[in-house]
Description:
Layout: E1 5-10, H1 21-29, E2 35-39, H2 42-57, H3 59-62, H4 71-86, H5 91-99, H6 102-116, E3 121-127, H7 129-136, E4 143-149, E5 154-155, E6 159-160, H8 162-165, E7 175-180, H9 189-195, E8 201-205, H10 216-229, E9 243-244
Parallel strand pairs: 1-2, 1-3, 3-4, 4-7, 7-8, 8-9
Antiparallel strand pairs: 5-6
Amino acid sequence: MVSSVGIVFVGRSNREKRSEVFPKLAEALADGRFSVMSFVPARVQVLDQIDERLARLAPRIAASAGPRHRLHHRIMRFVVKAAMVVWTKPHWDFVAASFRPKPFTVARELDRFLERAPFARVHLITHSAGGISATKIAANPKIASICCFGYPFMHPRSGPESYRTRHLASTTKPLLIVQGRSDEYAPAPTDLNAMLPAHAAVIAVDCDHDYAEIPDTQFEAVLRALRALVAEPAGEPMLQPTHSA
């Protein structure tokens, strides 16, 4: 029987980097009260299928990625993949992803995914850019709460960018931010608090932006806060405004 309440993991926008904290969280939260699943944009699924098909039909072209390969091989790979994309359905998502920050495209895809999801209420657990996409659509009536690991408030090479933060203060859903003390995407703590709504809770942990090595005692504190955030049936967070693990 499918639960009426779901926990959905929304990962990083970089397909080459995994969200290592997700499997540990999924195992800890899989207690039968929730249906736990991961969101993968349809566009990414199509790209994975194209890569698999290309590797099977033309392995030399498929392998011609990166500067160590000859330019004409890389161009051929790009042209072939572009032609394969043309025959797929989500054309607009590919076009939008080429001209807008990825979180905007992912937010649109996540919104559609939630509309089809068999849940009355959904708690989103995100990592990195997944947090931007989730908070962009926080008004979706199915979203009950959002927990962000390593929200990318600023890019270490680009500095502040308004699309990352200007919408946060107007987020009305329960919001938990888990931020690494050595996370290069985090601003100064005083700036962080100014960007968030008053009801948001922040937990500082000893890790970097990968969130793979959170100390056990701190992970347990995060897990307690997360369980309080997704408490049902009330769905109201039992959190202090700001604290550290």
